[in-house]
Specification:
The chain is an all-beta fold. It has one domain. It has no helices and 17 strands. Strands 6, 7, 8, 9, 12 and 13 form a 6-stranded mixed β-sheet that branches.
Length: about 210
Amino acid sequence: MADFRENRRNGIPHELIAEKRVELGPGAVFDAEIEVTAKGNGLLRLANIRPRIYDAHNDTEMFADRLLTSRLADVNGDGYRDLILYGVKEVYDDKGNFLAFRPEFFLWIFLPRLNRFDTPFGIFDPYTEVRNYFEEIPLPERRIVLSEKYRLDRETTRDEVQLDLNGDGIAEKVIYGLQKNTAGQMTGFLEIDRRSLKNNRWRSVFMITPAD
């Protein structure tokens, strides 16, 4: 949250408010706001969406760095920036014992004609309690369903799936997973590739590595 300006709302001391003005593209300027409560839960408010971005409350699941990393990037090439949230989720049993790391990834495509974000793409984890972190679970055709190897695997893991992110009938390749950085911390990585119609080769249009 270092890039946000901290503020207080209604004089309530247990609420941390961080605000920033963001431009997604021509004519699309919004106030982005992160609100974190004393219980350790936090939402990002941006345009029409309210995703959970902060979780330090250990109720069997929480984010490894407490705060998910957010990126605004033009993923579909329409000149407007889209919202990507990514990070690592820690999973515990009901006695507080650590079970596993899981990748966390959600993508909202901005719709300039409607001045709002579309329903998200993202990871759907069938092995833990289904929580509505992001107000809505992705539609079946937008879900990345975690494979069995994430169930109890604590080591480096990599998967990929093809999803049509911009609705043109041509699927992009989403490569995601877990990897330790140089400090030995478990981090998430994400890459989005698009196939060139000229030479039928994949090229990277977005990438986040553990070094980021």
